[in-house]
Amino acid sequence: MPAILKNFEEVITSNQLASIECRIKHKEGYYIPVVAKASLVNRDRKPKIVGILRDITEKKFIERKLIEAEINFQFLFENAPLGYQSLDYRGNVLAVNKAWLEFFGYSKNEVIGKWFGDFIDPEYLKVLHTKFPQFKEDGEVKGLEYKIIKKDGTRAMISFNGKISYDENMNFKQTHGIFQDITERKKTEQTLKESEKKYRDLFENSPSSIILVDLDGKIVDCNSASEFLTGYNKADLLNHNISNLELFFEDSLDLIKKNFKLLIDGEEANQLEVKSKTKNGK
Question: What keywords is this UniProt entry annotated with (predicted)?
Answer without folding.
Answer: Kinase, Phosphoprotein, Transferase
